[in-house]
Amino acid sequence: GNVWEQYSNKVIDRMNNPKYLGEFTEEDAKKRGLKLVVADFGSEACGDAVRLYWLVDPKTDKIVDARFKSFGCGTAIASSDMMTELTIGKTVDEAMKITNLDVEKALRDDPNTPAFPPQKMHCSVMAYDVIIEAAAKYKGKNADELRDNEIVC
Ligand code: FES
Ligand code: FES
């Protein structure tokens, strides 16, 4: 069928108008008494990349605010935007439990219809991987040791 129809309205809205596209600086973090975390992840599948910014409250480990930047395709932008939103208000440990499958589900218009075609699933995997990179930076750990959720790509 028509490729266009394989994308949910949520994906189309967020790729055209992401809500959390942007960045935070050390200045922003200092002003609010929060810790800045900046993490990158690049996809081996397509060479695209995403950068995630968190402002974390060091007393509670809670992600108070978040932004992202992307070199990715439309699905990557929509997935990164949703992932960024899902991390806000969670602790770093809670955020680590978010997978690309959660992101894809959150982007569905209808619970039984995939948000994007299966060959774009790897674009959403970056959204999971960059969370782990950010969590590793915050904890001062190695990202590969923290990566244990099941992902589908
Ligand atoms: Fe797409 Fe793994 S990232 S195959
Ligand atoms: Fe590279 Fe989608 S094709 S992130």
Automatic annotation (TrEMBL):
Q: Where is the NIF system FeS cluster assembly NifU N-terminal domain?
A: 6-143
Q: List residues binding Fe cation.
A: 46, 73, 123
- Superkingdom is Bacteria
- Which residues are [2Fe-2S] cluster-binding? 153
Per the record, the similarity remark reads: Belongs to the NifU family.
User: What's this protein's function?
Assistant: May be involved in the formation or repair of [Fe-S] clusters present in iron-sulfur proteins.
Q: What is this protein called?
A: Nitrogen fixation protein NifU
- What range of the parent protein does this fragment cover? 9 to 161 of 321
